[in-house]
Amino acid sequence: MTYSLSTGICQRLHNATPNEDELFNGSHTLQVLSLKKVGKQTENTNLPTDRYRIVLSDGVHFLQAMLATQLNEMIVEKHLTRYSIVCVERLSCNYVQEKRLIIIMALRIIGQEDKKFGEPVSIDASLSEAPTPAPERPLQQSTFQPVIPTAQPVSRSLPKSNWHPIEGLSPYQNNWTIKARVTQKSELKHYSNARGEGKLFNVTFMDETGEIRATAFNQIAEALYPRLEEGKVYYVSKGKVNLAKKKFSNVMNDFEISLEKQAEVEECLETTNLPMIKYSFVSLAELQELTKDSTCDIIAILKEYSDVSEITSRATNRTMKKRELTLVDKSGFSVRLTLWGNQAENFKPDEQSPVIAFKGVKVGDFGGRSLGMIASSTMTQNPDIPESHALRGWYDSSGSGSTFQSHNASGGSFSGAGGSGFNRSEIKPLLEMKLEANRIPESEEKPVYFSTRAMVMHVRGENIAYPACETCNKKIVEDGGSWRCDKCDKTLSGPTYRYIMSFAVSDHTGQLWFQGFNDVGDAVFGKTANEVIEIKERDDAQYNLLLAKACCQSYNFLLRAKRDSYNDNSRIRYGVSRILPLNYKEECDALLNLMDTPWGQQGLKTESNNMVY
Amino acid sequence: MSDISPRVNSAILPRFIGQMVRIPCKVLTTTDSTVTVQTSDGGEILVKYTGDHGISSSYAEIVGQVIDQTTVKKAAVINLQSELDLQMVDRVIKLIHDPRFFSTVFS
């Protein structure tokens, strides 16, 4: 069978301009001269991310193009092979710097041949099979000048036609170029360790296939830091791919890039086909479902924000700057998000109540649920995505007027699982809690939380309250006639007492001692600490009566159990995190519901070991 | 056995004819010698009394001897307040009379 190739097409495509639609959508008959898989060499596998470079001839010239991945199957199924005659039905042309990249979007197999027709020559006179060891870098134009000087003095041209997917990066292959957006850039950090001093910064690169962290040290860091900007897209090549140090990064990738002397970074000026940041947003209401210390993406309206404040970290004794943002969204919930360091200082909203999208923020349980920025989090104001527009519309029409609830709902109700909420589903009787708490190993540093319901049996009368500073709550000392706070450096005329109590509670399984602070005293006595101290000093009998009246009252408790060791002994101390007076109706409902559970459906056992509640 | 007065609703009451029971209820109407009350399952019972009925709130618990399926002779009244969730009370009453529990725990 003879075929008539569309002679002259290669010439036209080589010189085409973007609006030559009929050229791109017309049918052209061409012959395949070669097919080559580019990218990570996966010899015997066929991945959907494989990309094939195809050389097509019109009998007079040949040119290179990339095959759209949706056509990969034709090659896999061996319908499309060398010397096939095809009818290209649709192609697109990307303009990269001054080069054209043609992508074949649709083609039809017409027939098979076993040799090439004519003596086609390359349409691009200086095009040649590069003698470099990496077969997937054919387009080398020595006259091509990179727009921005690279990290090293030698200016080399960078191939633009076949960038590697980030997902495909591995340490076993070094000849890749990725085209990715910087979604996050850290500050230039200084460090000193046993080997000396240095500086580093890291970025997160992201493209359609995934994301990867890259780090640069010392001189390279200095050179690259001003060149890589958050939000911009770059071509990066010749970095070293190593195993990721998960300790330092949250990025989902087993590998990370080390940008060393030979690494090349070039800004991508093409405005189409740029990788966009992928979010998977959760609504603020759904934050409750997430566990503490996990990360998430959210998009919300900035309702208000605090000034920058400075706090001293107890652990490191260093001061840190922070700023609190209050965010709200359509779910009717609000949440506080903390910015740190320079980001806190430099924060400025683009407008009144902008939409802000956050990626990779850490979930905390302060006040129910809270969010904080970590090194790999990103914040983008008013992003151009549909969710942002939807939020803007909602807020401008109705949202700004509504009230929002926070995850730490008003006192007396039971917020959900986790550190700051009394957890009804996890409620345990004292004996069970005691047994479980005693199983906490010595090594466990963090406190374990328990919920329980018990009755106050005895309150220790000695040392029931201490004189406290109004602002910081630390103990103040009397000095002559006035009181002085060491921490705030203030002098106060009179102390404000705060409760510090040791009290015993019981239930049907046993007895325990709890330690409580001011809120416990307020709940148990119904009087302020100042009043109670006054009674204590004035009238012994009345004080004892007060202590007695506090007994035989039941409360729901949220406890922090922590192991304390003194010398050889180690004991569990129970601190009261929340004390909640009982709402009998709620409790009754809870007990009735318990009877409806499978546990409640059992028969009575006369000698039961499990029926503790 | 006679010291115990289990809580009942109108459906369970007939089982205790001749015995003492307790009825948590809502007071509907009062006359000189009777009080009509609504039990936790929505039924109506007539409470007969002599002297002072002693009821001073909208909800009360009547302790008395069962005369017939719908009549009780009052022995004592415990006044509750103006709000009581009778549905919740009913759930509890049903549990009380569950065969698993009644004979062991409540009698």
How would you portray this structure in words?
Chain A is an alpha+beta fold. Chain A folds into four domains: 9-127, OB fold (Dihydrolipoamide Acetyltransferase, E2P), CATH 2.40.50; 166-267, Beta Barrel (OB fold (Dihydrolipoamide Acetyltransferase, E2P)); 284-406, Nucleic acid-binding proteins (OB fold (Dihydrolipoamide Acetyltransferase, E2P), Beta Barrel), CATH 2.40.50.140; 424-464 and 500-590, OB fold (Dihydrolipoamide Acetyltransferase, E2P), CATH 2.40.50. Chain A is built from eleven helices and 32 strands. In chain A, strands 7, 8, 9, 10, 11, 12, 13 and 14 form an eight-stranded mixed β-sheet that branches. In chain A, helix 9 (529-538) packs across helix 10. The longest helix of chain A is centred in the C-terminal third of the chain and has 13 residues, at 584-596. Chain A is elongated and about 115 Å long. Chain A starts with 8 loop residues before the first helix and ends in a 17-residue tail after the last helix. Mean pLDDT of chain A is 79; it is low at 126-160 and 409-419. With 107 residues, chain B is mainly β. Chain B has helices at residues 86-96, 102-105; strands at residues 20-30, 34-39, 44-48, 59-68, 71-79. Chain B has a five-stranded mixed beta barrel. In chain B, a hairpin with a 2-residue loop joins strand 4 and strand 5. The longest helix of chain B has 11 residues, at 86-96. Chain B is globular. The interface between A and B is small, with 7 and 9 residues. Chain A: It is found in: Nucleus. Chain A: Component of the heterotrimeric canonical replication protein A complex (RPA). Chain A: Residues 176-257 form the OB domain. Chain A: One of its GO terms (molecular function) is zinc ion binding. Chain A: Residues 449-591 form the Replication factor A C-terminal domain.
